[in-house]
Amino acid sequence: MSRVFFPNEPSGVFQVLEMPDFGISWAGANPLGEGFCLGSERGHIVLTDTKGQPISLLGRASASGEAINGVAFSRNWLAVTTRKDVNFIPLSLLDSRHLEALVISGGASDVAVAPSGHFVIPLGRAGLMVVNPGLALGIPVLLGNPEHQGPNFSQVVTFAGQGGTDLIVCAGRRGVGFTTFREGSSSYALNTVRFRNLDIVAVCSIGVPQQPLALVAASRDGSLIFFRDIVHDKNPQTLKFKGVSGTVYRVLSARGDIYLLTSHGLFGLFKLADDFRAGVTAGEFTTNILRIPVEASDANIVDQKWLLAAGVDRLFVFDVQSMPRSPEESSVEAKPGAEAATNGHASWGAFTPQVLEAAPVWEESGLQQKAEAMAAAG
Amino acid sequence: MSAATQDIEHPARSQHSNYRYLFTAKHHGGDKSAATWLAEISHDTEFSIFDTADLRQILDSRGWLYGVLPDGIGELLTIGTWDEQVAEFQPGSSADDTWHGYPQWALDEPGPPNRRKQQCCPERLVFDRMAAVGMISKIQRKRLLTGRHA
What we know:
The complex is a heterodimer.
Chain A: E1 2-4, E2 14-18, E3 24-29, E4 36-40, E5 44-48, E6 54-60, E7 70-74, E8 77-81, E9 85-90, E10 102-105, E11 112-113, E12 119-122, E13 127-131, E14 141-144, E15 155-160, E16 166-171, E17 176-181, E18 188-194, E19 200-205, E20 215-219, E21 224-227, E22 237-240, E23 248-254, E24 257-262, E25 265-269, H1 272-277, E26 287-292, E27 296-302, E28 306-311, E29 314-319, E30 346-351, E31 354-355, E32 361-371, E33 376-377
Antiparallel strand pairs in A: 1-30, 2-29, 3-4, 4-5, 5-6, 7-8, 8-9, 9-10, 10-33, 11-12, 12-13, 13-14, 14-32, 15-16, 16-17, 17-18, 18-32, 19-20, 20-21, 21-22, 22-31, 23-24, 24-25, 25-26, 26-30, 27-28, 28-29
Chain B: E1 8-9, E2 21-23, H1 43-56, E3 65-67, E4 86-90, E5 99-104, H2 124-132, H3 138-145
Parallel strand pairs in B: 2-5
Antiparallel strand pairs in B: 1-2, 3-4, 4-5
Helix pairs in contact in B: 2-3
C-alpha cells in the first residue's frame, strides 16, 4: 500500500479539533443551522461553527447525564438519546442553561427524523419508537418485538415511502429490517433479511433520484451488503474487501464514496456507491481504499460536505468533497518522520472485492404496537 | 444448546477473593425471558470472565463485578444471546454464598416514569475502571458508554 500524509490544516481536507475537557461522545450536524453539534459523555451538547468554535452551549440535554449517542431536530423539538433515556427538548427552551426536557426512561442507540417529521428511535431488542413532534409532543408509538424476538434495533435510516408513508430501515444485528409507518395504522409488518454469519451493525442510504431506495448495510466484520432497492431487491450483493479491517462502528456515504469507521480507523472506499449504482459487477472492478488510522468511536456526515469522527478527546473533521479518491489525486506525499495528526500515516491500496455467498433469508412478521404516555418532565 | 435445568457450582474459587461461582440454569437457557449466555461460552470461559473481574476489581458502587471477553487481538467478543459484550456478576445473600453472572444488556429497558426500572446497564465507573486497567481501550469505553457494541 502507498502512503499519504494528511496535514492538520483548518483550510485543508483534514483537521483535528482538540477537546480535552469535553469528553466528546457524538458529533453531527447542527440541527439549527450551519455547523456542528457535539455531544458529551456527561450529556451536554454544544453547537459550533464549521471550525469547531462554540456558538451556543446548550447545556445538559440528557436527564440521566449519560453519554449522548444521537441528536435530531424536527418541528421545534430536539431529540437527544443516551443508553438510559430519550429526551425531547422544545426549541423555546434551548437558550436555557438547564434544559427542561420531556424524558422517556429507557435507552436508545440512535435517533433519526423521517420524511414526515416523526422521530424514529431504535430501542434495541425492545423495538422502535416513533414520536410525532407537533405543537405538543405526540404520544410515543412503540413498535415492539413480540416477546423480545426479532431484530436488535440498533441504527436507523428513513426514506419517503409510498402514499406519504415513512419507510424505516434498521440495522438489526440479526439482519436488516424495514417497516412502513403511517400514524394511526393499526398494524405494522416488519420485513427482515438475514445473512449467514453476518452481524449487521450499520446501515446507510446511498439513494439518488434514479434509485431512491438504494442502501448499504455493514456487517461487524466489514462485509458490505448493497441493495438497489431495499423493498424490492431480494438478492442484494454482498462484498468484502481485504483492505478493510477491525470491528465496524458506522457506514457512511457521500459523493458516491463509502466510508467505514472501524476499530482500526476510517476507511474510504472511493466510487464504490457510484460503481454499484451504475451496475458494475463485482469482480470487474477494483476499489481504491484509503485507510486513515484515526481512533474514533462514532462518525457522521454533515451536509454531504463534512465527515465528523468523535475521538477520545478530539474531533476529526474531513472535507469529503475534497478528499482524494486515488493515490494520484493525493497532493501531499508521505512524509516519514513528520508529525502525524491522524495517529499515523494514511495508506492507499487497490482491492478487488470478494463476493460472499451470504444466502439472504427474507421473513415477514408483525410488530406489536403500543401507544403510551411515557414521557415526564425531567 | 439444550436448556440447563439445574444450577452447577464451579469447582474452583476466584483467585483474588476466594469467591464461589454458580452457573445458574436461569441464565443458561432455563428462562427465555432472562439474559442468556451464548452456548459457545463454556463454563470455564464464563468463570474466567468472573475471575478476571474479581482479580482486577471491576466493581460498581454496589460491589457487583463486571467483565468482558477479549478476543486476544484487541476486540471484544459477544457473550450473550442479545449481542451483549459485558457480564454482570452479583453476590449471594451472605459472604460465603455463591456469585452468579449473566450478560448485561447495553441499554436500559423502556418504561413509563412511574415504573422506572432498576438500574440496568452498568455504571460509568465500571467502564472507567476497565479502561484504567487496560481491559478495554478508550474507544471501546466510549462505545460501551453510549450503549453500542465495541
